[in-house]
Design a protein that fits this description.
binds zinc ion; 8-stranded parallel β-barrel; binds 1,3-dihydroxyacetonephosphate; alpha/beta; 311 residues; two-stranded antiparallel ribbon; single chain; binds glyceraldehyde-3-phosphate
Length: 311
């Protein structure tokens, strides 16, 4: 099966009350871990690539690694551009064979967000590619996503109908209290998501696929391993998994996970070096990292997303 778009995937996910995992990929081991987990769980997958990933790995390498993932698994896989910053980035990804792109113009005014998104949608749809857009802003700091907590704002349900009608986008990322990175809540703060906003958006856009960014749960066993084996990540806190499960039964069809993969990878490598200070073959520690990421992705598919046996 060649790469697919998310259209059929999201229809089935919406109807089935589950979400498809969108995992960020930067290198071969992470891609192998995700697709091996997907294969064992018979789950559809979205492999997403950020601008930082394209810069790090070279788009040609990523494209071929993802082609290898498709060839070796036969799973329905979407190759998605994460946080496309402008029309040119989306165009370049489409030319590169991506079947789905995100245009993230959420930091522009409502009117400009519509104009920029509309332009990407026209270009993408003419080429059979689907488009994710964003309304509202998440807090968080990553390579390409840098929004201060005070500048973050929830999605306004009043705006979603006009936005989706005028842009023609295929899915919509909304801000309901998730954020990028490994520090989503302060210690002592009760993790909360605005399910009222999600519910209202779902009522206004029946059947329309909603996307959650910043949806890592920051597993505390991984944080503890990192800290035990020489790391320093105090107070790393994520979204409780039961909240993500609940969102997946609602209108959320795509859940983005990057930080959790990074944590699993880092914990495994730190542990490996502490336990085997004499090792210097990258296959040994990257092999451990790959196994840890695979185990984490299987857990997400089965216990959080509910996308097992849906491929
Ligand atoms: O939302 C951002 C993703 O976690 C990608 O992060 O820009 O560091 O590759 P990155
Ligand atoms: P996390 O940082 O919570 O993994 O979010 C990733 C994301 O939203 C990628 O677009
Ligand atoms: Zn994101």
């Amino acid at each position: 099966m060649p790469l697919v778009t998310s259209t059929e995937m999201f229809k089935k996910a919406y109807a089935g009350g589950y979400a498809v995992g969108a995992f960020n990929v930067n290198n071969m081991e992470t891609i192998q871990a995700i697709v091996e987990a997907g294969k064992e769980c018979n789950s559809p997958l979205i492999l997403q690539v950020s601008a930082g990933a394209r810069k790090y790995a070279n788009p040609v390498y990523l494209r071929h690694l993802i082609a290898a993932a498709v060839e070796t698994t036969g799973l329905p896989i979407v190759m998605h551009l994460d946080h496309g910053a402008d029309f040119e980035s989306c165009k370049s990804a489409i030319e590169d064979g991506f079947t789905s792109v995100m245009i993230d113009a959420s930091h522009h005014s409502f009117k400009e967000n519509i104009e920029i998104t509309r332009k990407v949608v026209e270009y993408a749809h003419d080429r059979g590619v689907v488009v994710e857009a964003e309304l509202g802003q998440l807090a968080g700091i990553e390579d390409a996503v840098n929004v201060k907590a005070e500048d973050a704002c929830f999605t306004q349900p009043d705006e979603v109908c006009e936005f989706t009608e005028k842009t023609g986008c295929d899915s919509l990322a909304i801000a309901i209290g998730t954020s990028h990175g490994a520090y989503k809540f302060k210690p002592g703060q009760k993790p909360q998501l605005r399910f009222d906003i999600l519910e209202e958006v779902g009522k206004r856009l029946p059947g329309f696929p909603i996307v959650l960014h910043g949806a890592s749960s920051v597993p505390q066993d991984k944080v503890a391993l990192i800290n035990k084996f020489g790391g320093k990540m105090p107070d790393a806190i994520g979204i409780p998994e039961e909240m993500l499960r609940k969102a997946a039964t609602m209108a959320v069809c795509k859940i983005n996970i990057d930080s959790d993969l990074r944590l699993a990878c880092t914990a495994a490598i730190r542990q490996h070096f502490t336990e085997h200070p004499d090792h210097f073959d990258p296959r040994q520690y990257l092999g451990d990292a790959r196994a840890a990421i695979k185990e984490l992705v299987k857990h997400k598919i089965v216990d959080v997303l509910g996308s097992n046996d849906r491929a």
